[in-house]
Amino acid sequence: MGPLNIALIVVWALSAVASIVFVLMHSGKGTGVSDMIASSMYNSNAGSGVWEKNLDRLTVISCCVFAATLLIFMLTFPQGSLG
Fold first, then answer.
1. Which end of the chain is more exposed for a tag (fewer CB within 10 A), N or C?
2. At 82, is the secondary structure helix, strand, or coil?
3. pTM here?
């Protein structure tokens, strides 16, 4: 495994963790983990505010980075030999 694959694994893992954190930070219906984490950051009436829009952008960006690194990793991963 070369240095490109090692760098891709690091970026892939960081984007996976970031995607999970950003999804959990989204405001929910008032129950669950998202309300416990995000209730102190903004009130329930500010769902369409700047914070929510930026959180949406960050979530989409981290998911796109995750998908792109996964596709690149699929093409560059060294395959083993059979037999």
1. C
2. coil
3. 0.70
